[in-house]
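ok trying this again, last paste got cut off
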Amino acid sequence: MNRPWTEFSFEEALTGIADAGFTHFGFLRQQKETLIGADTPPEQVDAVVAQVRRHGLEPAFVFSSTPMTVPEEEAVAYLRRLIDNAKRAGASFVLEMGHGRPENYEKYFSTMRKAAPYAEEQGITIALKPHGGLSTTGDDCLRAIQAVDHPAYRLCFDPGNLLHYAGQRPEVELPKLAPYTVAMCIKDQTGGIKGPVNITPGDGDVDFPAVFRILKEHGFEGRPALVETLAGKTLDEVNGEAKRAYDYLTQVISST
């Protein structure tokens, strides 16, 4: 993902990701700009995707933070437009960030239930990640998936966020979540609840060999499994950490 390069240009982000050896890309914001959103014009989607592919990268997902301050039918329409743009971009997943206000949880689940059949028709899966709020703990994530109860609404496992928001060991929570896991945000973390996550995978508290072993045992083939966070502040530092992450994860996966 482009998050470690968010203060740099999009071109610098793509160059760093491709030069490190990665082959897939997930759209987050770049310098506070939404690269592909629900209301991004088709020509802009095409231009951004062309830029990504010039670096030998394939789009994996676009991110979503579905608004709950609007009427439910507007939230469903928003998500349907985003699904359309994800399909146009050649991405198979919408990375859903969930929601943080308990009074809106049922509205959120209803919105997802109404949008999921359309996502399935378009060949898109909405993948919820652990992100606080309704997806804070492993059990919270499981309840959300079961509340929506549709094969086009599944989980993007984020081990760092389980540590960050809930203080839960990812490898302990994963077995019950793995049957619903269709994607992974590769994020490390240290320091307990609310501890830092801008850490290169392998340097923090996540047991990545155990995580990948459990996922493999449940049939997850690793696409997409995208690095979200790295250490480093300067462009050269971030690029170096990206290469180090690639080498570490390649070794872990090959030995799992």
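PB: full thing came through this time. The first strand starts at residue 24 and ends at 27.
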